[in-house]
Fold each of these.
Amino acid sequence: MMIKAGQILSFDKELENTRNQSLQELVKRQDIREFVEKNHLTKKALEDAWVDLLAYVDDHEPCLHCHGINECPKMNKGQQITLSYETYVHRDVKSCQYGLEKHENDQLLSRFHYNNMSTRLALISLKDMAAEAMNKKDASMMILTKQLIEYVNRPQTKGFLVCGGPNRTKIMAGMMNELARRGYEVGLCHVPTLMADVKASFNSNEDTSLVDLVKNIPYLLLDSVGEENVTNWSRDEVLAMILDYRILNELPTFMTSAYGFEDLETIYTNKYNDKREQLRAKNIVSKMKALCCEIIID
């Protein structure tokens, strides 16, 4: 079937009208209008860029009420079409603010060589914790955050045992986050979970590799020390092995606990009428003291 020239002309005219109406609507958008004014676009440049402008608007519609990467309905989550102009309108794809944030967080989390706690804890900011302490006029937390920031600025071999207070885990996770931000390799280790995981991996090579992984982390936080199910095995063959290795290799180690050194010695004594048990408990706490200074918070 032959298409007549008149039909083609009619179609072209209809397309032109559709494009002109569409462009009139597009330039009502503030972002499009600002782009046009900034680059002094002519009517011809706008007409040539019509398809690119439509693609830009369609791409940005889902972003108008977006509050995070998890809400993104796009196939390429965290990506947005951007427009630029140099002799003609260019269409590019770049990360949005949430995409950039995810990329930054992914890079940060890659420096956590071990984390059996949570991603949320790993992403806690020490600076935010310091600001929160200041807003609440929490004197003990203000002193502690200042001390931790000073450590991060000048890392040393000896770490801290932070005991007492409801926010000890959160604030120490913030410190590990800050170390990771500065390029250090770190780890978050919830001690009760570690013991359960090592025990569950008996009769395989995983129990050894798990302990090896934890003991070799350059900057390690041991969380909830003394809250595990304390046995001779957990104390002498797992925890003592980790602490010994870190002492010998001068690896900075940090701990949180509901208990101070004195109470931990009691907790790690399994049989109170056994002199050897008392010595072993004293020995494990002496290792902790070799690695950490005690800080008590309210």
Amino acid sequence: MNDFVPCDLAGCRVLVTRAAHQAHDLCRLIDDLGGRPLRVPAIEIQAAESDEALSQLLARIGSFDIAIFISANAVEWGLKLLPQKRLPEAIDIVAVGQATALALAKSGHTVDVVPEHGFDSESLLEAPELDESEIRGKSVMIFRGEGGRPLLGDTLRMRGAKVSYAEVYRRCCPQTRSVAGIDWRLEDVDVATVTSSMILDNLFTMFGTDEHERLCSMPLVVISERLLAHARKLGCEQVMLARGPGDHDLVEAICAWLS
């Protein structure tokens, strides 16, 4: 974000829970601002299990009018599984948010639709290009992880689109909560960043019932109203809402909390 104003994190110990391959930039930003990032991936991203139906669906990508990508992970794993490793030139490409659009751009694709504000299905469904008058009769492939939310596909079907899901990756709970080379406890954490409901659920699973009270009292920075409501439902007491899912958004919220 262009108006990001850095602050002095002054040794603030920040639990970074993103998947390992997506945590580096946030950890570096925290470190650059004087904070102490504790990298504890609370989610693992793996390839979807081999599925002949998925292979056959992806082989027909050229017959679809629109490809929608729900996340940067959907871009990475979806393109790997496509027969040509890229999308056909004629297909319209839709990204759920700016991070997903950036991943598509880095892969050499031009994004046709991305929400001006927001980064979820609700925001995407407000795009005029997905209005009923525009989408009716069109074939849409939604690239996502296994077991994603049904809202986008269900709504597009109600608007007259023919929707297929390409579930190209799966999200798993890590089997360990260790941090290589670092001796730490939850009591050492000042604030945690959480970017999905599954990550928060996994944290409670990873640390177990003995640490439930500490997790509930730990300050959290979350990225959406939906995630904020989920955190409060789990009993989390101090939940701060960032302006978005970007690294600067998360750090900005931490800075506001420190002030």
